[in-house]
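B., you asked whether I could sanity-check this one before it goes into the benchmark set. Here's the sequence:
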Amino acid sequence: MCRPIGVIRTEMRAKFDAPHQPDPLAQQRSVIELFPHQGFELALTDLAGFERIWLIWWFDRNSNWRPMVRAPRGKTHRRGVFATRSPHRPNPIGITSVPLLEIQGRELIVGCNDLLDNTLILDIKPYISEVDSFPNQRNGWLVELDEMEQGGDIFNVSLCPVAHEQHRWLSMEWRIDFMLRARSILAKSPHPSRRHRITRPENGIYRLSCGAWRVFFSVNGSEVTITRFAPGFPGELLEREGREIIPDYQAQLAFEERWPSP
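And here's what the prediction gave me:
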């Protein structure tokens, strides 16, 4: 029987916000809040000397599992779930190695990670480099994929003036910026993909779903032009009682008032 020991507080609120694996270059600080009255302060004794820790956590946003899944990288055909890091597992348990930056009472400050805000933490273990790192081991089907991707990006991604203004407004006024992730997806392949949430074009315009937001773009040869952004939720939902559970609902309302949907 597993019982959560705490939760993590991050800036990632939607699945799209979280990377498929932690980005070691990301300047990220998250807080793990351990539950009170459990003696966890004592359980953290001597952990401060470790530079990295393992987090064992619960994929609480998934309600089912699949024996064959589409991996986030590579071709669209399915692979066995045990050969992937997919969240759709028989037991929805995740494991992530994160930098341990600081310990303050029952709170642990950690660096780059791939956990959504309010994810339940099941356990914490120290990362021991002598036994936890095997850099020269073969990585299965990922080896061939890495060789294919060494050529870098295939498509050039740019923003038209309207999209540039909208992006600047979102990042400056609301500190919302999903362009790095969107650009990395579109630079590899902007074509329709259920895995990347890209829908078929309507009047020559494609749509990429970025969590609570939508990115509209056109494709001309190797050039991808982002034409505009838009809220991902309709106005009637953003104004309905209980809207607080919708990510970025206030920013979406303000965006719609500034740039009404066509």
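One thing to flag: The helical segments are 40-43, 129-132, 142-149, 161-173, 179-188, 235-238, 249-258. Otherwise nothing jumped out at me.
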